[in-house]
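Exam revision sheet. Question 4 asks you to relate a sequence to its structure. Input first:
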Amino acid sequence: MTETATLAESYTEMTELLLPNDTNNLGRALGGAVLHWMDICGAIAGMRFANKQVVTASMDHVDFISPIDLGEVAVVQAYVFNTGRTSIDVKVDVRAEDPRENEERKTTASYFTFVALDDDGRPTEVPDLDCPSDEEEALRREAVDGRREQFEDLIDRMED
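Answer key, structure tokens:
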């Protein structure tokens, strides 16, 4: 019998208060800091899913659609939405929250692929993804469709 794990078991949420060390001269989050947070959150989701160490294999295209300002809270959410034999696909979303104004907005999203490693550092098999609830299946479908659309947009831009 093949081992399975659920999307919900992988779900991870991190928060970061944007402090001066992670800002540019405009008082906004450095893109590299945001990518760092995304990579960590995605890796945690992958490790929770596989119960193994994971390493980043790839990250898809990233658009920064809204800044995160000094003093705001960055909320990074990740979950596994697809698997291969040794690979795990993770959707990572970032939003900014202004706790003083009780406002939030989407800032970026991307899709990461991680590879699970055994104790010797070699790729190892991962569980199959199970989405037992309608909510989990809807999140999985949203991620699959979103990644496909992002890829199609990239192809269109390359052809122009």
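Marking note for examiners. The first helix runs from residue 7 to 10.
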